[in-house]
Amino acid sequence: MPATTPTRILLADDHALVRRGVRLILDNEPDLTVVAEAGDGAEAIEKARIHRPDLVILDIAMPRLTGLQAARELSRLTPGLHILVLTMYDNEQYFFEALKAGACGYVLKSVADRDLVEACRAAMRDEPFLYPGAVTALIRNYLARAEQGESIPDKAITDREEEILKLVAEGHSSKEIADLLIISTKTVERHRSNLLQKLGLRDRLELTRYAIRAGLIEP
Where would I find the HTH luxR-type domain in this sequence (predicted)? Predict the structure, then answer.
């Protein structure tokens, strides 16, 4: 039988040590190869454009753009791209957000040495990979919503507002945010004002606290 081409992987995590460890796990497998690394969500999108990977592995809490924001953008830019979330957060909210953002798997860093390789292979077979706690959460959530006749609620803020909230909380000025997102400073100010109004907050400090609670930035 002819040898199959290894799955080309882009790995995004803001900690170089984590990337090194994960890369060791993946490069040790004959059917998997890491072709590029990124230190934040925005760089992950950029590197995905250049390297055209088959699979992207994203951390959640990263500078500039979170893994969830990057997943949404990558799903929009490259429909059919396989996306895995690799995170320290055993958290139902992030788990559901990851699925909504286009991820087909959710792996905890604490068990990456055990689960990650299988999660990569499952993703390439177009099969979901969920850690056991996530499966429980998914079933419990589905049953609760079915009982109440509900659907999954929409987020309080739009994806663009979330991007701006994260950058404001990281200390970027309106001009820096405008340059990063390629929009006008006036548009940034309008979004910022809408955010304060929607969330019932008063200033940058309260926005930053909200961003920490929402998992957009690390405390």
Answer: 150-215
- Tokens 């400073």, residue located: 185
Distance of CA 134 to the CA centre of its chain: 16
What is the pLDDT at residue 1? 38
Task: Enter the tokens of residue 88.
Answer: 């320290």
Global pTM?
0.68
Q: DSSP per residue over 91-110, as a string?
A: -HHHHHHHHHHT-SEEEEGG
Burial class (CB in 10 A: 0-12, 13-18, 19+), 195: buried
Q: pLDDT under 50 in the chain at which residues?
A: 1-2
| β-pairing verdict for 7-12 and 55-58 | parallel
Q: Which of 12, 65, 45 is nearest to 217 (CA)?
A: 65
**All domains of the chain, ordered by start, with CATH?**
7-145 (3.40.50.2300), 159-213 (1.10.10.10)
Residue 42's closest CA among 177, 135, 149, 153?
Answer: 177
Residues 6+ apart with CB under 8 A from 148: none
Q: Phi-psi region for residue 173, left (φ > 0), alpha (ψ -120 to 50) or beta?
A: beta
